[in-house]
Each structure stands twice: as C-alpha cells, then as structure tokens.
Design goal:
Elements (H helix, E strand, L loop, with lengths): L1 H27 L13 H8 L3 H9 L2 H11 L4 E6 L1 H5 L11 H9 L2 E2 L30 E5 L2 E5 L4 E10 L3 E6 L6 H4 L14 H10 L5 H30 L1
Parallel strand pairs: 1-6
Antiparallel strand pairs: 1-2, 3-4, 4-5, 5-6
Membrane topology: Lipid-anchor; GPI-anchor
GO biological process, one term: plant-type secondary cell wall biogenesis
Main location: membrane
Length: 249
Amino acid sequence: MMIMKQHLIFTLSFLLLFFLHCSRILAQAPAQAPAPSGPTNVTKILEKSGQFTIFIRLLKATQVTNQLLGQLNNTNNGMTIFAPTDNAFSSLKSGTLNSLNDEQQVELVQFHIVPMYLSTSQFQTVSNPLRTQAGDSGDGKFPLNITSSGNTVNITTGLTNTSVSGTIYTDGQLAVYQVDQVLQPLQIFAPRPPAPAPAPAKSKKKKAAAVADSPDDNTPTENSKAVSLITMQNVVLFGISAIVITLSL
C-alpha cells in the first residue's frame, strides 16, 4: 500500500513538472509574423511626419495617391518622391494653387515624383535631366536636374533651386525626401510672352479728312450735265435770235 502511494505521488510530480516545462516552451515560442499589409501607403507615411498636409491634400484631390498605390504594387523600378513641406507651399505667391486648373495641379504633383527608386548615394551618379511622372524632360517643359556634393543634394527646375533637407522614408522600393521649396516646372510657371498688340484703328478725324480729300464720284457727271445744259441754252438763244433777225428784215 505504501509502495502504491509513493508511486502515485511520483507519477503526479512527474506530470506536474512536464506540464510546467511545456508551458515554458510555449511561452518562449516566437509570435507569428503579421500578415503583409499590402502596398506602401504614401499618404500615411507623410501624415506620420505631420508637416505635409497641403501636399497630402493635393495627392488626394488629384487622385495621384491612388495611382501610387497601384504603381508601387506593380513596379520593379520603385519610386522617389520629393515632398514639399507646408512652409514650402506657404512661401508661394498668394493664390498660386487656386490659379491652376485641374490638369496643371496633376502635373505639379507628378513633377515631384520620379518613377524609379533613388537612394542618397545614387544622387551622385544620376543622369540629368531626370524624367518625372509629369512627362519627358527632354522637350524642356519639365526639366528636373539633381547634383550632389558631399552630403548636399541640390535640385533645380529652371525656376526653383533647392536642396533635399531630409529623408522621410526609404525601404529599397520607395524613397520619400523632404524639400523646403515647391518644385516649379517651366511648363506651368514660366512667364508667357505677351500677346501681339492689335493694329491701331484709324481715328474718326483721319477718316473724315480722307473722305473730304477724296474726289466726289458724282462731280464729273454733274459737271458734264451742266456743260450740256448751257450749250443747249446757247443753241436755243442763237436760234431765236436768228428768227427775230429774219422777221425784222
């Protein structure tokens, strides 16, 4: 009886130790990796920084943010975005954004997006001018040039000269860099040549003088009629005079 009791105690102790050991192993097991969250959301990245509200609003209003979601999910080249801060937009002339039509707003946003991933080290070897999503820079409408010297990355557009002031996000596919000026493309912001002035109209005085100086179209005809009438009168008078003289004889 004593042996059975000892055996039971031993068995229970073994089971208790085994249970505690298994619990410890389960507790130390790594947590399951979260499921992929889908393509990178550019607006969420910018919202986290907290100083790009105007650029975010433009991305949404022009629906470029939807294009980015699709392109980031289906491209192997990646993408680079130069994001202007709110202060950059505030430094524009008042009413600038409101003066742009829908097409120009889309082009302005797309001008800040390069359809390839560029790391900071690649800025030193990039070929200028860069092609942006606004269009081919070869026609001179959307030129974007980048030069690098040490840690300084300079960007020029023909109207804007600024530099990259910080890296907001980079993952090998998407790079988002902060710029402190809005990149202004020539196609939208370059001054247009003035329209040619219309030919000056003749003044009323000059017209009146021209009419007065020009010969009257009816004058020769009227003068001719007057001469014919005088001639006829003379012939009649001559005839009457001849009759009177004849009768007096």
